[in-house]
């Protein structure tokens, strides 16, 4: 009888964890260029969640690309900053189940 009770308890625990809701996470990627189309490296990219104000930062790589992973779904403000260029701000980018792509062109 105790084996049956242990088995039922195990099944309940496993089933409840399978049905537990997990918050989906999204990805934001893009590429940063200058007016001539050349990539901008070592620029700071800041993604700010419009709803709660949380921010994440990344740096563009050798290919001008950046990536944020595991972002909670929602609307984000994306800011690009690099020495010698004007700051560029994208007021709203929506992060959802599919990857969002936000490219920037600095002046």
Give the SSE string: HEEEEEEEE
Q: How much strand? A: 35-45%
Which structural class fits the helix and strand makeup?
Answer: alpha/beta
Distance between the termini: 75 Å
Name the quaternary structure.
single chain
What does this structure look like?
By secondary structure, the chain is of the alpha/beta class. Helix content is 17%, strand content 43%. The protein has one helix and eight strands. Strands 1, 4, 7 and 8 form a four-stranded mixed beta sheet that branches. It has a four-stranded antiparallel beta sheet with strand order 3-2-5-6, with no helix packed on it. Strand 5 and strand 6 (88-95) form a beta hairpin. The chain is globular and about 35 Å long. The N and C termini lie far apart (75 Å). Mean pLDDT is 86; it is low at 5-22.
SSE topology sketch:
Blueprint lengths: L1 H18 L6 E8 L10 E6 L5 E5 L5 E7 L2 E8 L6 E8 L4 E2 L2 E2 L2
Parallel strand pairs: 1-7, 1-8
Antiparallel strand pairs: 1-4, 2-3, 2-5, 5-6
Offer a concise description of the structure.
This protein has 107 residues and is α/β, with parallel strands linked by helices. Helix content is 17%, strand content 43%. Residues 5-22 have low confidence and may be disordered.
Which features characterize this protein?
107 residues; 17% helix; 1 helix; 4-stranded antiparallel beta sheet; 43% strand
């Amino acid at each position: 009888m105790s084996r049956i009770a242990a088995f039922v308890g195990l099944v309940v625990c496993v089933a409840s964890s399978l049905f537990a809701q997990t918050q989906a996470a999204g990805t934001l990627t893009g590429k940063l260029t200058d007016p001539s189309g050349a990539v901008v490296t070592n620029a700071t990219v800041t993604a700010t969640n419009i709803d709660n104000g949380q921010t994440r930062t990344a740096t563009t790589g050798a290919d001008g690309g950046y990536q944020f992973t595991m972002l909670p779904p929602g609307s984000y403000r994306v800011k690009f900053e690099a020495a010698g260029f004007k700051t560029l701000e994208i007021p709203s980018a929506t992060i959802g189940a599919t990857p969002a792509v936000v490219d920037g062109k600095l002046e």
